[in-house]
Amino acid sequence: MIVCKEISFEDDLPWDKLVEQSTTATFFQTREWLSNWVKYWGKSGEVVIYAVFDNDELIGIAPFHITDKINILGVPDPSQSGSLSDFGDIIIKSGREKEVWQAVLRSIRKDPSTRPAQRGKLGMTNRENIKIELNFIREESPSFGILKELGGKIEVMEVSPRINLPAKWDEYLSTLNRHDRHEIRRKIRKIEEEGIIKYCDEINNQNINEFYRLMVASNEKKGNFLSLEMRDFFSEIIMQSGTKKLLTLCFLRYNNENIAAILLLFQKNEMLLYNSGFEPKYSYLSPGLTLKAYSIKEAIERGIKWYDFLRGGERYKYDLGGKERKLYRFTF
Where is the BioF2-like acetyltransferase domain positioned along the sequence (predicted)? Predict the structure, then answer.
């Protein structure tokens, strides 16, 4: 018998193990990411997390955030604060996706009887008439077909290019058009001729602050994005997830100065490019793009299957070989 039980982050459940058993979950459904998201942005509504059991077996964890609509936790409307998760989904043991989604969508509509104070604060008596809005569902996720089958209204929200990586670097280069292939080789050769070193270092406050410095230097928009609150959030994420080897910080170093930085996330057989920065005075060396190319090379050498550029259709993602894939919103 399948049942949904409301839980909290403090409950002793094998969250990490279920993420590993899931084809729906991504880095943005890890306990570290979501618990920190709630700490900084979750107080504006009600946080509801369901654990889904088949008898005693945990087959799903479904976290939601309820305001005037029901969203997947950490994935509000992009116009709202805290829109930092590139992918929305829930955590489901592979092969159990449909029954978990059916159970969760039934349960989330029920009267939140365990939250009477919060219910009054939000002006809700039940959830039956609240819109369910599930943002940034990947087209390759099993959730996509199931939510479509269950009658969700569907719309394209964004693109998220990625590369299906071959076994060798030269094979990857051969997939690019002639111009892009020439440019990558030229940029890498120039970096090497200048004696610039690429390295991935331990996670500590000094390296995190260097990453922030280069983000701010490279782009005014990134500087505005990196508020003190954002820095605190990402510092916690980087320290906690770095300890578990779920991410890394890499740099290009020239004349004893870091001139480019990149934050890479890891999830199963994928490498995810979350953010980057570079020193503009060295733009003639193309350090930002070259460091991204180096990270693709590293992913290939590690036998990683996918390199994901995450949300956004910036030109460089396609120049580096990214193929378009869509992210969707489902509304119930």
Answer: 180-317
With cut-offs at 50, 70 and 90, classify the pLDDT of residue 206. very high
pLDDT confidence of residue 127: 78
Which neighbouring-strand residues pair with 7? 49
- Sign of torsion over alpha carbons 154, 151, 28, 126: positive
**Quick one: the chain helix, strand, coil %, rounded to 5?**
40, 30, 30
Q: Which residues pair with 313 in a beta bridge?
A: none
What stretches of 140-222 adopt beta strand conformation (E)? 153-159, 162-164, 197-201
Q: Could you give the CA distance from residue 75 to residue 258 in angstroms, rounded to a whole number?
A: 33
Distance CA(221)–CA(174), nearest Å, equals: 34
* Residues pairing with 153 in the sheet: 331
Residue matched to tokens 């002639």: 178
Q: Are 252 and 259 in contact (CB under 8 A)?
A: yes
Q: Are 94 and 23 in contact (CB under 8 A)?
A: yes
**Class of the CATH domain delimited by 162-308:** alpha beta
Q: How far is CA 256 from CA 161, 188, 249, 250, in A?
A: 34, 19, 17, 15
- Per the prediction, the chain carries an average pLDDT of 94
Residue 113 has pLDDT above 80, yes or no: no
- b/e per residue, 142-175, with b = 16+ CB within 10 A? bbbebbeeeebeeeebbbbbbbebeeeeeebbee
- Give the start-to-end residue ranges of the domains of the chain: 2-159, 162-308
CATH number for 2-159 (one of 3.40.50.410, 3.30.930.10, 3.40.630.30, 3.40.50.1820): it is: 3.40.630.30
Q: How large is the average pLDDT for residues 112-138?
A: 68
Over residues 91-105, the pLDDT tens digits come to: 999 999 999 999 999
Same fold for the domain at 2-159 and the one at 162-308? yes
DSSP 196: P
